[in-house]
Amino acid sequence: MTDAEGTAARPQTLPGTLTFQLVTLGAIATDRFTEALAPLGLKPKHAGLMTVVSRGLAASQLEAAAAMGVVPSLVVSLADHLVKLGAIERVRDPRDRRRQVLTLTRQGRRLLEQCAAAARSVDDELAAALPAEQRAAFARSLSDLAGRAGLPTA
Amino acid sequence: MTDAEGTAARPQTLPGTLTFQLVTLGAIATDRFTEALAPLGLKPKHAGLMTVVSRGLAASQLEAAAAMGVVPSLVVSLADHLVKLGAIERVRDPRDRRRQVLTLTRQGRRLLEQCAAAARSVDDELAAALPAEQRAAFARSLSDLAGRAGLPTA
DNA sequence: TATTGTTATACTCTATAACTATA
DNA sequence: TATAGTTATAGAGTATAACAATA
């Protein structure tokens, strides 16, 4: 880490930091995504749980909680809701009857695709300002950072 | 908007959207920034209010609420706390005694600089993965988007 | 005894509504 | 009567803690 780009005297102001901008833009994106999901009867964390399940990142609820960076009791209520909507199935693992194995139903896959469509439409609003090329580069950087950061899923 | 980059059939999956990534990364950035501010006795919204005041975006509390995208009653409690820390002064506008004019004190400017330092250290954690050039491009894109999006400040 | 899931409870953040004072 | 600010209250979201079932 050199003096030129390192931690030494660097008069960068708060609104200029990545952190500040991620905090503010993240809040805006969360608000808009929440609105876009509302007609589906879902919140962002529901979409997060469906994603985790669909990607095979978590069969059990405990694994899902770990993958999402939330507490297991929250997964219970998220899963309750998704079961009510017919989006996931919860079956006891016959090998270890303490575990609840979560799987996405056909309806769940349909819902998840609708979540993705909602996110895409928010993308188009948010990124309307960026030319396609810059937008693609931005997406790559976001992916890089998200991949590194421990990535709780929503 | 052409078919190639437009809203037509485009099988982009939820975790691949900017929206999803901004939601998740924004949550991570908010968590880390909150931790980094804790030793200063501040929350991100306090830093947001100080920023708004220091930039002259809001003299009165009502203007501050509008600039931050929050409700006026929240500004009251944020300002209460900042007054208690000696970071801002609240004086009645002599021209209209209903208005409370907020100004940053010297101590407030010092605190705000400490907030910026905290954000920079979170930046270094988060963006350690990105080469300097890519990081700079990412910052530019973030600024562009934040500038357009209505920009509630924290 | 340890672990998975669940339920009951509490806490944090922020909004809404009612109120005060000034205009 | 309308507006800036304040106070009181309520709601959403999520965590912590106590508990039940299974290992």
Automatic annotation (TrEMBL), chains A, B:
SMART domains: HTH_MARR. GO terms for molecular function: DNA-binding transcription factor activity. It comes from the Bacteria. GO terms for biological process: response to stress. Residues 15-147 form the HTH marR-type domain. Pfam families: MarR_2. InterPro entries: HTH_MarR-typ, MarR/SlyA-like, WH-like_DNA-bd_sf, WH_DNA-bd_sf. Gene3D superfamilies: Winged helix-like DNA-binding domain superfamily/Winged helix DNA-binding domain. This is MarR family transcriptional regulator.
